[in-house]
Write a structure and sequence with these properties.
By secondary structure, this protein is mainly β. Helices cover 0% and strands 49% of the residues.
Length: 126
Amino acid sequence: QLQLVESGGGLVQPGGSLRLSCTASGSSLDYYHIGWFRQAPGKEHELISCIGSSGSVTHYADSVKGRFTASRDITTNTVYLQMNGLKHGDAAVYYCAAVHSTATSRCRQYDGMAYWGKGTLVTVSS
């Protein structure tokens, strides 16, 4: 059973940077597509990036392109999200989520992802 644990959230000023981590256990990330999602208060879960089971980034949301970078370190079974140029609109609970590569060729929207971490809170405030 795959487990995902996010870390790295916190308080950051507008324009600042933060690096989130998602550590997986129970199975290798080579078998899963990993998405980063965020949920702002009163909003739906938004898929902001996807790393395929091959380790390559397959998706960035338009809202974060050029500012956020997803990456994977298979040796530690960890996915990262480097967030630069943070804005007030980036404040949210950030989640990593996984779907097995045999179930789909890519990350799916919220209901299509099978495994979820508990989230880490990112607050953007001056």
